[in-house]
Records
---
Amino acid sequence: MLMPTIEVSALSSVGQIVLAASQKGYLDIFKPQGPIFNPPPVYFYTDPSEGFFNFFVVESGAGTPVYLPNWLSEIIQVLSNQQINILFLRDIQEWTYESLKIFKTLCEMRTALWWWLMFNPYQEPFNTLRVLTEWYLTAFTGIFPVIIGIDIGPTVGLALLGNTLDVVGRLVFTMPYLPSEGESFTVDSLDALGNAPLTEMLTKFGHDVRIYRYFPSLWSKYSIPDSLREFWYTKKPEITEYLIKNYYNLGIDFLPNRVLKDYYDHANNEVLSTGLNGLKVVPNLIDTLDKLFHFSLFIN
């Protein structure tokens, strides 16, 4: 009486496998997915007083964010001429994460095969697996003490690889800011933000956050690249206007070099009285240009 029931269950199981294969593909059934790349969320926002480069990182949740050291973040930004894009770095991060995940799986397979003597590691496809992974696993051999006749070096190597994978998955890039410039706020301390609309939004959001806002310190330490200033001036004039109005007293050039050259070439009494409006600049920047010019004369 049990046989028909078993047969029906078996047919049902086969039907479920075939259905799953038609939806996902046969490899997805037998291949483990592993941890999914899911870095801490980063949200960008603009604000009339805080500017156009602000964002906040969610710090409460499944994974605690990991930040680069200040010196490393600064080196990356300087080498990239301060024009590195967070989204581009996120793509590299995801590619690195997926590559490490595949490599870790291969290392685990190679470690498991050490216990199965019936497999010849010098025959394909095991030889390819050996070549891809053994350079890493054997690097830890003999470093740690042998426990019950077992060298724990490869196990330590796998643990280190897993920790690296975890750190890469939780890494957050803060360009154009340095990681230490972030302000940490818990849900209960959001009233100290000094920005009512932002406080209201984050209160509804309901998470601890680290906020990066206002003017990045590296733009004071290093000059803003001319190509970036040119882009703001031609494509995003509201950014140029905001920076000049709020930070012209820092003595930083926010206008592209060609505009500054044109401006300073005509910086004499006669041209200032008659020719300022003749410059090819955004009209609503004329007043702030005048402030910038007089401030430059003062500091020089």
Note: Residues 1-22, 268-272, 278-286, 293-300 have pLDDT under 50 and may be disordered.
---
Amino acid sequence: MNSDHFDERSTSALMNIIQDKDVGNENRYAATQSVLRRWRQGVDLEFLIDLLLSESSRDRLRGAHYLAELGQEVEGLNVAATQLADDALSDCRRAFVEYTVNSGRYDQTISNALAKCLLDLNLHVRVEVINWAVPISDERFENFSQLVEAGAGWPEFRFPNPLSNDFWNASILKRAVRGLDIIRCIRDGKEIEQIKKDFPEEDSFIFDVIQFSRTRRERLAKWQDKSQY
């Protein structure tokens, strides 16, 4: 089937094709691309919104995958996308950050959600926020930093002993400040290897992901040079 054929089908029919395991991969891919084109234009968004807000974790993961594939803001998805920041699934929280990067949106709700994601125990989510914060404007980063340091997004501890709450609040503050300091170092142009040495408490995976992203073009150029011989 050609792409025109899929574009003539209803979104409901296309979603069924995508889920049908008896359909060939090529047709499922074509159906997916047709649906994504519609959603980028703001058409039939209710299908994606239903996935993002579903009680089924499998459906929300599907929705998060589609959201990342869109690669742009779609106004009708903003509310549902932001709700992923509080999802129990780390892939959904990560999809929220990716959508924020692609959309360029920033307001009080989003900033609080990003602050929470910076403190996420899942390293993929934490590093996505770090990567988001590196290229943003000085004004926006200053606002974000103040929110994080003031406690935005922090978990609320309710131990009977208030000293236990103080212990974990101090731990969260330390991790929050460390994340902001790492971002500042990258924004200032410091080498990743040096930053890694300066912050031994941070998991090395964070720096590996950042370095991997920053050296993508260099690796591609080297690979292309080798392939010519």
Note: The two ends are 39 Å apart (CA to CA).
